[in-house]
Amino acid sequence: MRTSDFDYNLPAELIAQEPAADRDGCRLLVMDRETGDLEDRIFRDIVDYLHPNDLLVVNETRVLPARLLGSKRGTGGAAEVFLLREVFDREPKTNKSALWEVLVRPGKRLKPGSGAVVDVRDADGNVALSAEIVDWVDGAGKGERIARLSTELPSLDEALHRVGHTPLPPYIKNYAGDEELYQTVYSKRESSAAAPTAGLHFTPELIERIKEKGARWETVELEVGLDTFRIVDEDDPADHEMHTEFYTVPEQTIRAIAETRAAKGRVIAVGTTSMRSLESCWDAQAQAPRARDREATSLFILPGYRFNVVDAIVTNFHVPRSTLMMLVSAFSTRDNVMRAYEHAIEQRYRLLSFGDAMFVR
């Protein structure tokens, strides 16, 4: 198995640059997991493929206003700080100050130990938030730093929402629409650097129709990191090191899984982040999933992996050579998935985060 096995020609004109006019009006490619058979549908038609006693599990995390555009104190040079995750174990957090793991730009001028500080100003030109670069992230191989965020506003949360921007994937250029459309309608706690995009297609009305069909709806949390945007650089995907992410699977979801199994229903992961959460919570010794509370996972699902919890998945189309292409291939087969992508491209599906969806069942 080589990374190149998961490559494909991605036409630039098919990369969706804005969301569908109606969340559930995008296209849906339905694929039989075993045979690879394909059907072209509309997303709201997913109700037709659900059965009473099925369980849909969604990632309810919300995207942070994680992109901070400012200037380097002292020189005025343009600088960017991208928030990855909060650091809880190094110093006490206050309402106006906290440590975060971040990416910065330009990296050469924002090094720990140099006294580098990035000031971020509001619309009136006042400094609303400052980020002092204080350390490197232990063991980080991609330049992550520790920054101390501080503000003179009443709270750091208020400052972030005043000057922060919702980060979009780098392949989405110049989107100036409603940033709320890059959030799921059921999102809650802000903790992710990217959206769990398979969930973007659901509307409150569609969720209600799903429940009326007799299917259940439960949640997990996985704090989505930037590995979502990265391709695998190594020739052998087994050499790729997954970024650690934190996830939570509530006891209520665990009970729902057990009841779904007892009723002969399917556990359907909405998105690869839900998939990774559900598979990460599997207890091999107990041979059952168990509840988790913000535990770390670096689970990397490659072809050959045995799925223990999930029976079907709703997912978007993914970047070539990505860990997500490998995960979906593991759930079906590499040949089935590549044929599905060829079909989607031939039929001019809209691809990637703002694009159309697949249901692999």
UniProtKB/TrEMBL annotation:
<protein>
    <recommendedName>
        <fullName>S-adenosylmethionine:tRNA ribosyltransferase-isomerase</fullName>
        <ecNumber>2.4.99.17</ecNumber>
    </recommendedName>
</protein>
<dbReference type="Pfam" id="PF02547">
    <property type="entry name" value="Queuosine_synth"/>
</dbReference>
<keyword id="KW-0671">Queuosine biosynthesis</keyword>
<comment type="pathway">
    <text>tRNA modification; tRNA-queuosine biosynthesis.</text>
</comment>
<dbReference type="InterPro" id="IPR036100">
    <property type="entry name" value="QueA_sf"/>
</dbReference>
<keyword id="KW-0949">S-adenosyl-L-methionine</keyword>
<dbReference type="InterPro" id="IPR042119">
    <property type="entry name" value="QueA_dom2"/>
</dbReference>
<dbReference type="InterPro" id="IPR003699">
    <property type="entry name" value="QueA"/>
</dbReference>
<dbReference type="GO" id="GO:0005737">
    <property type="term" value="C:cytoplasm"/>
</dbReference>
<dbReference type="InterPro" id="IPR042118">
    <property type="entry name" value="QueA_dom1"/>
</dbReference>
<comment type="subunit">
    <text>Monomer.</text>
</comment>
<dbReference type="GO" id="GO:0051075">
    <property type="term" value="F:S-adenosylmethionine:tRNA ribosyltransferase-isomerase activity"/>
</dbReference>
<comment type="similarity">
    <text>Belongs to the QueA family.</text>
</comment>
<keyword id="KW-0963">Cytoplasm</keyword>
<comment type="function">
    <text>Transfers and isomerizes the ribose moiety from AdoMet to the 7-aminomethyl group of 7-deazaguanine (preQ1-tRNA) to give epoxyqueuosine (oQ-tRNA).</text>
</comment>
<keyword id="KW-0808">Transferase</keyword>
<dbReference type="GO" id="GO:0008616">
    <property type="term" value="P:tRNA queuosine(34) biosynthetic process"/>
</dbReference>
